[in-house]
């Protein structure tokens, strides 16, 4: 028997990861500093959550130089977008009580 919360993805239960994926669902590429400012988190906190999402293959990383400054940006993968959408659907079903 399936429980009402079985489709909720633990990878997205933290507010920072939820924020990262929400931002990436509506933007192609987002750089580290933009995440840090938008989510109001420290470098280390953001880096640990990004690493966790990257390990799950939900986001991909692009490292480049803009002039002489390094720039790291992120994009949601197709797998990440699908997993996040399924998570949102599960939350919606939980709220509506339709499971």
TrEMBL record:
Superkingdom to which the source organism belongs: Bacteria
GO terms of molecular function: DNA binding
InterPro entries tied to this protein: WH-like_DNA-bd_sf (IPR036388), WH_DNA-bd_dom (IPR027395), WH_DNA-bd_sf (IPR036390)
Keyword S-adenosyl-L-methionine among record annotations: no
Keywords for the protein's UniProt record, in alphabetical order: DNA-binding
Annotated Winged helix DNA-binding domain residues: 16-95
Pfam families in the record: HTH_34
DNA-binding listed as a keyword: yes
Protein's name according to its UniProt entry: DNA-binding MarR family transcriptional regulator
Organism: Arcicella rosea
């Amino acid at each position: 028997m399936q429980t009402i919360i079985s489709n909720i993805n633990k990878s997205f239960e933290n507010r920072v990861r939820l924020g990262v994926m929400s931002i990436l669902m509506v933007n192609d590429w987002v750089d580290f500093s933009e995440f840090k400012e938008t989510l109001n988190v420290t470098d280390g906190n953001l880096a640990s959550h990004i690493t966790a999402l990257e390990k799950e293959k939900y986001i991909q990383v692009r490292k480049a130089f803009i002039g002489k400054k390094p720039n790291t940006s992120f994009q949601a993968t197709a797998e990440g977008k699908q997993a996040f959408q399924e998570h949102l659907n599960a939350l919606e079903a939980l709220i509506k009580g339709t499971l």
